[in-house]
Amino acid sequence: MKNLTTILLFLTCIITQAQQSYYDGINFNKRGVALKEELAYLITSTHTRSLSYSNVWNALKVTDLDPTNNSRVIQLYGYNKTSTGTDAYYNGKNNNGGNNGQWNREHTYPKSLGSPNLGESGPGSDAHHLRPTDVQRNSNRGNLKFVAGSGNSAKTNGGWYPGDEWKGDVARMMMYMYLRYGDRCKPSKVGVGSSSATPDDMIDLFLKWNAEDPVSELEIQRNEYMGNRSNPYAQGNRNPFIDNPYLATLIWGGPAAQNLWSFLGTDNYSMTENKINTYTNGSSIFVQSTNEVIQSVSIYTTNGQLNKVFNNTSNQKNIEIRNNNKGIHILKITGNNINETKKVIIK
User: Where is this region: Disordered (predicted)?
Assistant: First the structure.
């Protein structure tokens, strides 16, 4: 979803303060299944509050509020900018239930497609994939698999197309469910596409949607609420693919998605067999290269802000960068055949 009145503050390519500590333990030099496993452990271990199915109502009344009008929620799959009708974009915040004209809790990953059935607890009550949806439109979707399409949400090709405005949201929710619940929520069970080019069961359909439809303000709003354990109905964990869609590209490949983190370059890996080592001593950071000359080292904070740049005018393979603050630092190290990111800690 991308056409909200207020377009993203998030396109500035930084990590928000709320994300800073959340991802401190992740090794962003990893790729493929190795990176997937680290992120899966993170979102599972930080899922410290399990919502009851009834509490999901209360959560959605906060997470899915219209940023321009807090008396109404935004309905997944909606496209008519009104508050009435089965295709309505909005509905009254408290007009929830099971009757026509109301909104209910859409399982974007349908309960019956889980293996086993997701039920109404655990994955069945995970608010990261539950969204307000018009009752009748929810019924029209039922448990149809997601399929390729264009335009507004509709049944098509024997499945369900969520709409141009919602396909990115859906893709990132399905990626989250796969990380969080593993084989119980395989992408191939909920979408029609091929996994032949990915290292596991991720399908090309969701990778394409993730790249084509950038993160929306509403997705960010939901993620910030859910990740803050102090909120009454927050689970405590985040959806990494909302924080940075490019993580999906690093794990599964496919078309390059939007990269929202400035320190995570699109070629963030060693291009030769040259080895880069880093260590600290006091307030100094040492960077050593086994073969190639280091041209520059950019030092970022964990919220993505550039702190300093060291340009190696002496053509050295081993350099010292002095007078750094305590804490975690992200190093972007470059040279003719060097393009690496390292994380160091000054205590």
Answer: 90-150
Which of the two residues, 182 and 268, has the higher pLDDT score?
182
Alpha-carbon gap, residue 227 to 211, rounded angstroms: 23
**What pTM, to 2 d.p., does this model score?**
0.75
Residues 6+ apart with CB under 8 A from 53: 105, 120, 121, 124, 125
The span from the CA of 296 to the CA of 315, in Å, is 10
CA distance 125 to 177: 12
Using alpha carbons only, how large is the chain's radius of gyration in Å? Answer: 22
Q: Which domains does the chain have, with CATH numbers?
A: 10-252 (no CATH), 276-346 (2.60.40)
Let me know: does 256 contact 285? Beta carbons within 8 Å.
no
Q: What does the pLDDT look like over 175-199, one tens digit per residue?
A: 999 999 999 999 999 999 999 999 9
Angle at 21 between CA 32 and CA 38, to 5 degrees: 20
Q: Is 256 exposed, middle or buried (0-12, 13-18, 19+ CB in 10 A)?
A: middle
